[in-house]
Specification:
The protein has 328 residues and is α/β, with parallel strands linked by helices. It folds into 2 domains: 152 residues, Response regulator (Rossmann fold); 133 residues, 3-Layer(aba) Sandwich (Rossmann fold). 44% of the residues lie in helices and 20% in strands. The protein contains 11 helices and 14 strands. The strands form 4 sheets. It has a 6-stranded parallel β-sheet with strand order 2-1-3-4-5-13, with helices on both faces. It starts with a helix and ends with a helix. The N terminus is likely disordered. Keywords: Signal.
């Protein structure tokens, strides 16, 4: 009998030693592609949120190429790992729906952020800012430095990118009412690839000799276009603007290839995405009208599609680019 008690006690101790002190929540932050400065900055915020929450591990992951097929492979791997939540910036709004539905069927909470997934493939979506405001902002960034108007073109990311397409449609809608002297001559796609974006920028300049501005609502495309303008000695003739990371883009504000750009804080965006995913894991319900916490960033109220916006874009120019380039 004494031996049995000793064995039982030993077994109990072994079980306690093998078990973690607490069950840690694992949230996967899935980005369009790795090696992108915007998403690296978002990961900083995500890790900050994890540290603040204390019982959360953030798995930062994504494909090397910005394709839906590559993201599907990543998501399947996360399902096999039985993570608690997936927060994804999608390369395609529809192609990812089946695999994300599979994740939800397995009890994994799914949100999209930055670039959305169709409603049936996620529980909520966090826009970085209001779509209409972003669309108007990217046109205004060009129009403010074209008092007499002129030809502009848009260099986007992938043709399937949900956020890019929504912003471009909002930009087109804003032109007749608010910027009648602006003539949008073309929209091209660089697939968030530096080489392709460079080629597309060169093509725009060759095709439209009266081009006054290239608007790139993508941090990869805007750098590529500004480099082309710099290399071709077109500073002062073609202004490059759009959405840019201050740390990556400061040189082009400094040399005059760009007058101003804008962006929300990607650190805050990654932080907010993790906070919202954790809300769902802890039992909060995503439904129209629900107000959910984003920690230090504030709160978001969901609309009829279970989407919400984080904050308005912020403009960077010569007056402040130095300060913000040291932050992100």
């Amino acid at each position: 009998m004494k031996l049995l008690k000793i064995l039982a006690a030993t077994t109990a101790v072994a079980v306690l030693l093998a078990a973690p002190a607490y069950a840690q929540t694992r949230i996967a932050l899935v980005v369009k592609s790795l090696g992108n400065g915007f998403f690296d900055a978002a990961n900083k915020g995500a890790q900050e949120a994890a540290a603040e929450l204390g019982d959360v591990e953030v798995i930062y992951t994504g494909p090397t190429a910005a394709t839906a097929e590559a993201q599907i492979e990543v998501v399947n791997s996360l399902i096999a790992q039985q993570v608690d939540a997936i927060a994804i910036s999608a390369n395609d709004p529809d192609a990812l729906v089946p695999v994300l539905q599979k994740a939800m069927e397995r009890g994994i909470k799914v949100i999209s952020w930055d670039s959305g997934v169709a409603p049936e493939g996620r529980q909520l979506h966090l826009n970085p800012s209001d779509i209409g405001l972003i669309g108007e902002t990217i046109i205004k960034l060009a129009a403010d430095y074209l008092p007499e108007g002129g030809d502009v073109a848009i260099l986007s990311a992938a043709s399937t990118a949900t956020n890019q397409n929504a912003w471009i449609e909002a930009a087109k809608a804003a032109i007749p009412a608010k910027f009648p002297n602006i003539n949008l001559v073309s929209v091209v796609y660089g697939d968030d690839d530096s080489v392709k974006s460079t080629d597309e920028a060169k093509g725009l300049i060759a095709s439209y000799p009266d081009l006054k501005a290239i608007i790139a609502p993508t941090t990869v495309g805007v750098v590529a276009a500004a480099q082309v303008v710099t290399d071709q000695n077109l500073i002062g003739k073609v202004n490059v603007t759009g959405l840019a990371l201050p740390s990556e883009f400061k040189q082009f504000i400094d040399n005059g290839a760009s007058q101003a750009v804008a962006l929300w804080n990607p650190i805050d965006l990654g932080y907010s995405a993790v906070m919202l995913a954790n809300d769902l894991v802890k039992g909060e319900e995503a439904k129209p009208g629900a107000t959910l916490s984003m920690g230090r960033v504030g709160e978001v109220t969901l609309d009829d599609t279970n989407s919400g916006a984080m904050a308005a874009p912020f403009q960077f120019d010569k007056s402040n680019i130095e300060e913000f380039s040291k932050i992100y």
